């Protein structure tokens, strides 16, 4: 299966899961005022933010499997940059 189809499917599934979680959370908040609604909204946002990171990780694994070392290195650099951004962005 071409890498473009794998990555497109991953992005589609991640977006659908995030949309479902956000919809459940917003609907629960508006209709019932349930205490668990913010958890669904937070989960939806986390999935939405994690989807591009998963895309880079899966692309790196596909490139590694195909022994395309240059693009594997690029994906590793991007993942390290994302991790550094997350770690440096944490303010207490």
Ends apart, CA distance between termini: 44 Å
Number of strands: 0
Which term fits the overall shape? flat
Low-confidence stretches: none
Order of SSEs, N→C? HHH
Helix content: over 70%
Query: Can you give the mean pLDDT?
Result: 92
Proportion of strand residues: under 5%
Q: Compute the gyration radius: what is it? A: 17 Å
Helix and strand content put the structural class at: mainly alpha
Discrete helix count: 3
How does the major sheet shape up? none
Written description of the protein model:
- The chain has helices at residues 3-31, 37-65, 69-88.
- It is mainly alpha-helical and 92 residues long.
- The relative contact order is 0.12.
Short summary of the structure?
By secondary structure, the protein is mainly α.
List keywords for this structure.
mainly alpha, single chain, about 90 residues
List the SSEs and their pairings.
Layout: H1 3-31, H2 37-65, H3 69-88
Helix pairs in contact: 1-2, 2-3
């Amino acid at each position: 299966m071409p890498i473009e189809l794998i990555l497109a499917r991953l992005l589609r599934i991640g977006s659908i899961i995030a949309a479902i979680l956000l919809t459940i959370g917003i609907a629960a908040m508006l209709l019932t005022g349930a205490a668990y609604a913010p958890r669904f909204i937070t989960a939806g946002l986390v999935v939405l933010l994690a989807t591009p990171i998963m895309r880079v990780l899966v692309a790196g694994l596909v490139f590694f499997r195909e022994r395309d070392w240059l693009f594997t290195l690029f994906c590793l650099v991007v993942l390290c940059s994302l991790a550094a951004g997350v770690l440096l962005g944490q303010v207490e």
